[in-house]
Amino acid sequence: NKIEKMDSGHTEYYVQREIIDEQRLKERSQRMDPSQINLPISHRLKKSLSCSTPRLKRSIVGFLPVLSWLPRYSIWDYGMPDLVSGISVGIMHLPQGMAYALLASLPPVFGLYTSLYPPLNCKRLAPDSDFLIYNGTNVTEEVDIISRDFYRVQVAAAATVLGGLIQVVLGLVQFGFVGTYLSEPLVRGYTTAASAHAVVAQLKYILGVSPKRFSGPLSIVYTLVDLFMLLPETHLPTLLASVVSIVVLITAKELNTALRQKLLVPIPVELCTIVVATVISFYTRLSKTYKISVVGEIPSGLQPPSIPNASVFSEVVLDAFAMAIVGYAISISLGKTFALKHGYKVDSNQELVALGLSNTFGGFFQCFSVCSSMSRSLIQESTGGKTQIAGVVSGVIVLVTVLKLGSLFQELPKAVLAAIVFVNLKGMFKQYYDIVTLWRSSKIDLLIWLVTYVSTVLFNLDMGLGASMGFALLTVIFRTQRPSYSLLGHLPGTELYLDMETHKEVREVPGITIFRSSATMYFANAELYLEALKKKVNILYLNLVTIKYIFSVCWNEAGQLKETNGDIHREVELGWRERENSTVFVIPETVRTSDVHHTWMYLKGTDPETTTLGSVSDLHDGDTTTLDSSSEDTLSRDLERVSLGSLGKWTWDIHSIILDFSTANFIDIVAIKTLRNIFHDFSEIGVDIYLAGCQALVVEQLERGGFFSDVITEGRVFATVHDAVLYCLKHRGAEILHSYENGRATHLVCTSIYYHCINN
Questions:
Q1: What is the 3-state secondary structure (H, E, C) of 589-630?
Q2: How confident is the model at residue 653 (pLDDT cuts 50, 70, 90)?
């Protein structure tokens, strides 16, 4: 090897080595046998079940990471940043926790119990209609608020525990990779649709109306229609309070963003808003004077743990699964974002178990389902929080509020909490811009986003998740089933081979066609691969093999005819003509006998689809070339020679086809059979097939699938495309094919050549 620096400043290198095929590669690299690499199942099982002190320690620390970092915690380095960060996040927990409880149709105090991200869905199983109380005096209906809220809490807790158990089980069986099937367009489309559901759920608090509750597909459409019908009944004081709160929150948040470089910690906008709103509501008696709905009684203290109502498990299992999967996807996406920024690694299975334990444990204390919060995570990061100690500090802030300060927020208007939810969804609203971005970058990803959004909005969160995941998997199948195919050419002065359609400077290697697929060939696209190869290479090799076979059969039948008084059975002769009418390559007009001299002639430039018996019979001088044949052996050799070089749409210089398999990461039995057929059929017309760039796993699968034989050896597989090209040029590149026309040799460049048998 040699490396030099050119005058232009570019580094140039030279490599001189032998041409390496698969057999030589194994010899030089000393590739290990698969049996040496892949240990037996019994050995692997024994190893996985073995226990040692270091392994036990790693398992415990992996399950409880706090045992690893807490002994090394530095108060001087992390104490003050964690304290400031914990207080800031704890203050944010108070308003957002109560607001998101309202989003879940739960009493606000349960948001304080949870104090994390909102649930995805748990309200549809406890509609108001199930808790109507009939007043016998004036025949009116009232909702039993206490019973309704109690049942909703039971539903939320059951869904939370069930979802947590699902997450724990998936984490223990190392199912963390499931998050990879939730692509970013899918997650963003799903969360955008969830925000649409959240906005619709808050409209009744913003407008001060009481629409009917709907569940199932199209429930959001029915709710919007009902809200539109109730617009004339909008409660103006509630609407005014909502609008003022929204304007104040948006303005303050924009100021927060503009001044974030000058502020030590962000201004707790939501906390300031609920404090001011509570004070105004208390002193102006908004709930009594203007009938504005307020939070109401907030009990002091913590709820004792209780076992969830198992009778609703069957009804919430789909919701629990949706919350488990999407909650994990959001959390792991957020975790990977911060890990990339700060240079650490996130264990997806550990995160899944941790999130599951949080939900399972919280469900016994009437908490609703949680996952990571983008806004509060950003606050913790921006204020310097480094460890989980910041979470402990924020938890203490919430604990003090629940125990001692909860009753102070009884006069807080629900419209203000709805406004907080509405404004905090601003980030979700910005995700609608994904439509423009994906339109420019990837139409398929845009389709995933739109299908996810529409299905989730129309069919609710559980069915929407299933539909979107199914569609995303279908796009993967579609993209592998319909890959792009290309012919590669050589970039002069390099060993690189690039697509000739997209690169102007690449040149086709004389006599060699290099074919590449952008995806792995497997059962779903093997037939398409074959069709694309025929189309790109422009060789109708199936027709050629058929022609060769029909020619042999028809000529043998002609030789077996007997003469009767010097005449041929016209009936049989017509039969030959009819059989050959579809191909018109061979038309025996005389009986084959040992003492008759035969001449073989071929016509150039005729379209096989339009050629007829008449056009073949009416040949003119100069249209044919004579190849004498007076014996069966000579005739057979002539037939073999012309069939390999002159049949069908085939140019003289294609003698080798290289299949670039560098994009393949596996191969199945259907693809192996297709490859074997390609090798066999092209060999029938004198074209050699080679494989190049196969990964070791693909070669191993070819061996196990019985691909290699005495005919197709490992010498047909090369390490790189360049190795294969050099081999072809060395062994076939020097051959010159000729046709004899008008007594002189010319290169065989005709695109269609047909054969005709006449008697001299």
A1: CCCCCCCCCEEEEEEECCCCCCCCHHHHHCCCCCCCCCEEEC
A2: low
